[in-house]
Amino acid sequence: MDAIILxxxxxxxxxxxxxxxxxxxxxxxxxxxxxxxxHGALFMIGAFIAVSVQKLLSLSYVTLDETRTDxxxxxxxxxxxxxxxxxxxxxxxxxxxxxxxxxxxxxIPIMALVGYVMERGLIKHFYKRPHADQILVTFGLAIVLQxxxxxxxxANPIQTPAPDALQGSFDFGVLIGFDPNVIIYPYxxxxxxxxxxxxxxxxxxxxxxxxxxxxxxAGMADRxxxxxxxxxxxxRFTFTFAMAAVVAGLAGVxxxxxxxxxxxxxxxxxxxxxxxxxxGGMGSLPGAVAAGFLLGIxxxxxxxxxxxxxxxxxxxxxxxxxxxxxxxxxxxxxLGRKGVMEE
Length: 343
Known about the structure:
The protein has helices spanning 2-32, 39-57, 82-87, 89-97, 99-121, 131-153, 172-175, 187-209, 211-221, 223-228, 233-255, 265-280, 285-302, 305-310, 314-329; strands at residues 60-69, 75-81, 169-171, 184-186. The protein is mostly helical. This is Branched-chain amino acid ABC transporter permease.
């Protein structure tokens, strides 16, 4: 039982990333009808915003400590971060330690700007083009962004640690009645799941309970009718694209301590996230979230040694097998609208 609970926790952690990326993909496809293969690159950019903020806050100047010498008798060089000089040792050290959460404040405007520029500068020219054209141009954009990151940050993963207070593990089993040290789970992974749940809930609340969200949902259902009512739906869809970029970016920021950012991480998640979107139902926001968590949990269970000993390599293909089965039985996906992908 403890192994099952641990795999569910692992699945919720991985499913959180799938759900957040798939949510943005579905927002873009449902509103704009665009298959955005550059969405994984937005997740990657978010992770590297966390890297950049951490490096920025760690910038230091060097002074010589005349009271200490190295083995050659020269004064010891001491590096002092600027934030420590400006805010004092305790506050400065805390700011550096919490650089990943602080990166959220930078990621929101940066990702909104990236999404706006991407939509206005490129995507809007492909609204009425075939999906094949959209895939080619957005996939090409993803490669360009990936190579830019590789050029400036290198090809190796960059460690981006979580705050010291959230490192280590939590005895989750004690909370649900197990013996101590039976179910141990990392603090930050639990934080990531909670953050994902909060972000997903915020997006749904915005779409459900605001006038702007109501117009977006109406536009997803019937864009032409909304336009005939005198509403500038294009501006709202641009905002929606920017919002989807922010969601993907924030998912990347918070995922940085879990998986050290590297230039190809966006592509790693992109394909799986598209599978999640199709399984959940093209254009279905609840379907994208539900499928993300479902496939994350299934992938987690498939990675168990007991399962792999019976079916070697099943952890690499389980998501695709489930997708095939679901789409054969229900082509529109789990929660897709009737008629979508069923012609």
